[in-house]
Each structure stands twice: as C-alpha cells, then as structure tokens.
Design a protein that fits this description.
The complex is a heterodimer of chains A (about 110) and B (about 110).
Chain A lengths: L2 E4 L4 E4 L4 E3 L1 E4 L5 E7 L5 E7 L5 E4 L2 E4 L9 E3 L8 E9 L4 E2 L5 E6 L1
Parallel strand pairs in A: 2-12
Antiparallel strand pairs in A: 1-4, 3-9, 5-6, 5-10, 7-8, 8-9, 10-11, 10-12
Chain B lengths: L3 E4 L2 E4 L5 E7 L5 E8 L3 E10 L2 E4 L7 E2 L9 E3 L8 E8 L7 E2 L3 E5 L1
Classes of the chains: A mainly beta (about 110), B mainly beta (about 110).
Chain lengths: ~110, ~110
C-alpha cells in the first residue's frame, strides 16, 4: 500500500543554518505531495505543496521539489529562524485511495 | 473567520463510558476526516467522509464510529472507550479529496 518515510528527529539547528528534512514515498498512481507544519499546541497547517512531477512548492522561505524518479519531496530552507521551531509532516495524497498518508513528523528546534 | 472547531479540547474519561467529540467547519467543505496523533506514529487516519451520508474507514477505524448527517458536522463517537484510545485527535476538512486540509485545534483524550 501507499506509505511515506520521513527523516527522524529531533533536529536541532542554530539560527541561520541550512535545513533539509528528507521525505520519500511509495504510491500507486501520481500522488500530490504536501508538507504540513505543526506549531506547539496547535493543529497542522499547510506549508507547501506540489501536484505534479518537477513542480516546486515554496512558502515562508521553505522549498520542496516533486522528484518522481526518486519518489522524494525533501523540505529545505536556506536560513532557519527560531520561529521555525515546529514539527514538520510530509504527506502524500493518494487519489486512488482518497486519503492522505502522513509521515511520523520531524521535530525541529532552532536555537539562537 | 474560516475555521474547523472541535469540542471538547480536553477530556478525561473512564473505560467504557461512551463519548462524542464534535467537529464543525464553516467553509462548506465536502471532505472531512478524523486523525489520531501518537508519539512516534505521526498522524493516522481513522475515518473520512467525501460528502453527506458518505463515510469510509481510514487506517485505524477499530473502536470508532462517525456520522455525516450535515455537511458542516462530522462527529467522532467512541462507544466503549479503552485506554489504548488515549491520544490527540484532529479533525480536518477540505474542498475536494486532494485539496489543502484545514485542521482543528485538536482534542486531547485520556481514557483511564
């Protein structure tokens, strides 16, 4: 069945460091790919998405490119801030199963 | 304000005492879903609904029931809660089956 593998955390970085959170998926068909972010004490909210191969999603300085050949959707940011501290979830959407598959989440802490 | 609301936000109950967690959205979304979030397991889908009177099982439906009598409401029912249902529960909604999901603030349930 469909699944997603996400880089385990927790990840701790200094402010202005480069961030990569790896995400790979297995899916039948051509899923849409999403990254969600969960700030402390809150529900998840959409960070960015890509709906077809080679699309790049971007928002708030974060980017991820839909790589069909490697079935990956890695999240990157060039310079993290303390306010980026949160849990990040990779979530492919399977249009054959009509459901999202969420990764286990990667906790990021950015220290000043 | 567009939002998904859940009630209650916190609940402590005992084994076997039926409970309902309500979920309501004011965005006229067709798709609604329930997830549970557990440490190390990420979010797992319990049930989802593609429209009124249309519901289907997600990955972990055992011990839960749902109903979708109105478009805006999607309550989660635990007929006989057990301690292994202690978790953080999120309701989410979206326009279509593959669209951005909007999440509620979460309900933290403890079953003693």
């Amino acid at each position: 069945g469909d699944s997603v593998t996400q880089m385990e955390g927790p990840v701790t970085l200094s402010e202005e460091a480069f961030l990569t959170i790896n995400c790979t998926y297995t899916a039948t068909g051509y899923p849409s790919l999403f990254w969600y972010v969960q700030y402390p004490g809150e529900g998840l909210q959409l960070l960015l998405k890509a709906t077809k191969a080679d699309d790049k999603g971007s928002n708030k300085g974060f980017e991820a490119t839909y790589r069909k050949e490697t079935t990956s959707f890695h999240l990157e940011k060039g310079s993290v801030q303390v306010s980026d501290s949160a849990v990040y979830f990779c979530a492919p959407y399977s249009n054959t199963g009509n459901q999202f598959y969420f990764g286990t989440g990667t906790s990021l802490t950015v220290i000043p | 304000e567009a939002q998904v609301t859940q009630n209650p936000r916190y609940l402590i109950t005992v084994t076997g005492k039926k409970l309902t967690v309500t979920c309501s959205q004011n965005m006229n979304h067709e798709y609604m879903s329930w997830y549970r979030q557990d440490p190390g397991l990420g979010l797992r889908q319990i049930y989802y609904s593609m429209n009124v009177e249309v519901t289907d099982k997600g990955d972990v439906p055992e011990g839960y029931k749902v109903s979708r009598k109105e478009k805006r409401n999607f309550p989660l029912i635990l007929e006989s809660p057990s301690p292994n249902q202690t978790s953080l529960y999120f309701c989410a909604s979206s326009f279509g089956t593959g669209g951005e999901q909007f999440f509620g603030p979460g309900t933290r349930l403890t079953v003693l």
